[in-house]
């Protein structure tokens, strides 16, 4: 069956997100192209899941500010030989159906329905390019086949108080979907688990002929042309729609973050610096692939009183230099230099940032190629920071790419 799944599944990865709630990180790039965890981009997680699940027929549907993403995929993911039946194609709106851009998740695939007709897969896997997680899609597709399902929706058990932010699936004892509501004020719990609800992870498996029918019907119907807002509510009562229990099937390795806001982006990065991170990037059985720039190893220098180069509970990427300064609970990207007597706490410092001497930085996201002048303080006086930068309601200070202080 493993070989059959690989042979008969086509993947659509939706990577056109505008990412307005991630601004200014999305000022010059799409959401899936935002750097994450020092060396990665967000889309690397979904694509690595595909590679590790032996799914190598992939259509990446792009739209907004896609240049950075296109280059990244060309540099990292151009590894699937078409002559062996594998491929990764980056597809902006083709305007084959009409002269519009992708108007929703379902419309994006409908506009590329000719690819389904050409490839003739038995199953279609639909993914989002802006989620951080590890998942064996083979298991999910196998569950879809065993349930003789028309559609299977990956679901993660979530406390009721948090489920109000997501699409909530109501299920029976066999995990067949009996209801679906977007962001309900009163989410219904999982049977037998009164404190938790199933929320949709935005990962879908379809039996192909059913998907084509759903997309065709959706195209003729007024709405947002979206799986969550339109198709799922329309079909669950009449079709065989099942929830796939992600936590049950992935155990201790179950971790999923929808990187939709600056808060969730910051928290997901901070998850990586925990002593035992829930998202284990060091698992050699499930590697996350990315583009590694040519840099020397990371370096920490000076061991004198008040001038010790040190990092604690932090991720330090190659090419970084921590020179007579201290880094705590932070993600330091390639090529970063932190100069003497400076302190960086609970922050995300992206590629090639230069932090001058005697700086104090906390609760900050500093995008690529920013130089922080000597003596600067960021994250300590939020009123002052708001005059210059984006500051989230949680007090996270965000400095955009190439910003000049």
Report what the structure shows.
By secondary structure, this protein is an alpha/beta fold. The strands form seven sheets. Strands 1, 4, 5, 6, 8, 9, 10, 11 and 12 form a nine-stranded mixed sheet that branches. A six-stranded mixed sheet has the order 18-21-24-27-31-30. It has a five-stranded parallel sheet with strand order 14-19-22-25-28, with no helix packed on it. The radius of gyration is 22 Å and the shape is globular. The relative contact order is 0.12.
How far apart the termini lie comes to 57 Å
Low-confidence stretches: none
Tertiary shape? globular
Estimate the mean pLDDT confidence: 93
Gyration radius (Cα, Å) is 22 Å
Strand-residue proportion:
25-35%
Q: Percentage of helical residues?
A: 10-25%
Question: What structural class should be given to the helix and strand makeup?
Answer: alpha/beta
Number of H- or I-type helical stretches: 12
Count the beta strands. 31
> What's the quaternary structure here?
single chain
Biggest sheet layout: 9 strands, mixed
Write the layout of secondary structure elements.
Blueprint (H helix, E strand, L loop, with lengths): L1 H7 E6 L20 E2 L3 E2 L1 H10 L4 E5 L5 H10 L10 E5 L13 H6 L2 H7 L3 E6 L2 E3 L3 H10 L4 E9 H4 L3 E5 L5 E6 L13 E12 H12 L7 H9 L5 E5 H5 L5 E3 L3 H10 L27 E3 L1 E2 L2 E2 L1 E3 L2 E2 L4 E3 L2 E3 L2 E2 L4 E2 L4 E3 L2 E2 L4 E2 L4 E3 L1 E3 L4 E2 L4 E2 L3 H5 L3 E2 L5 E3 L6
Parallel strand pairs: 1-4, 1-6, 4-5, 8-12, 14-19, 17-20, 18-21, 19-22, 20-23, 21-24, 22-25, 23-26, 24-27, 25-28, 26-29, 27-31
Antiparallel strand pairs: 2-3, 6-11, 7-13, 8-11, 9-10, 9-11, 15-16, 30-31
């Amino acid at each position: 069956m493993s070989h059959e799944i690989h042979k008969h599944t086509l993947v659509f990865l939706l990577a056109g997100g505008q990412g307005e709630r991630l601004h200014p990180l999305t000022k010059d790039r799409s959401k899936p192209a935002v750097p994450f965890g020092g060396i990665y981009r967000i889309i690397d997680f979904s694509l690595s899941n595909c590679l590790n699940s032996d799914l190598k027929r992939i259509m990446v549907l792009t739209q907004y500010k896609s240049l950075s993403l296109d280059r990244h995929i060309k540099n990292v993911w151009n590894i699937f030989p078409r002559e062996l039946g594998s491929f990764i194609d980056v597809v902006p709106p083709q305007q084959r159906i009409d002269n519009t851009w992708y108007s929703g998740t379902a419309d994006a695939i409908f506009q590329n329905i000719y690819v389904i007709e050409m490839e003739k897969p038995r199953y279609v896997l639909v993914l989002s390019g802006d989620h951080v997680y590890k998942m064996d899609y083979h298991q999910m597709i196998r569950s879809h086949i065993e349930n003789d399902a028309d559609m299977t929706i990956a679901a993660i058990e979530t406390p009721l108080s948090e489920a109000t932010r997501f699409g909530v699936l109501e299920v029976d004892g066999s995990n067949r979907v009996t209801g679906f509501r977007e962001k309900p004020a009163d989410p219904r719990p999982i049977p037998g688990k009164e404190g938790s609800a199933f929320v949709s992870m935005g990962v879908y498996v379809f039996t192909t002929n059913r998907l084509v029918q759903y997309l065709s019907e959706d195209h003729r119907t007024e709405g947002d042309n979206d799986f969550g807002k339109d198709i799922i509510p329309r079909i669950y009562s009449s079709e065989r729609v099942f929830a796939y229990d992600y936590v049950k099937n992935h155990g201790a390795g179950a971790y999923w973050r929808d990187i939709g806001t600056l808060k969730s982006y910051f928290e997901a990065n901070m998850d990586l610096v925990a002593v035992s991170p829930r998202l284990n990037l060091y698992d050699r059985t499930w590697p996350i692939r990315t583009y590694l720039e040519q840099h020397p190893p990371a370096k920490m220098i000076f061991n004198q009183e008040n001038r010790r180069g040190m990092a604690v509970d932090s991720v330090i990427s190659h090419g970084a230099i921590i020179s007579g300064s201290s880094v705590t609970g932070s993600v330091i990207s390639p090529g970063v230099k932190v100069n003497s007597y400076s302190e960086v706490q609970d922050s995300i410092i992206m590629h090639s940032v230069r932090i001058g001497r005697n700086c104090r930085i906390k609760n900050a996201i500093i995008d690529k190629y920013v130089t922080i002048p000597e003596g600067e303080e960021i994250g300590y006086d939020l009123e002052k920071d708001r005059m210059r930068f984006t500051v989230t309601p949680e007090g996270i200070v965000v400095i955009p790419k190439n910003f000049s202080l």
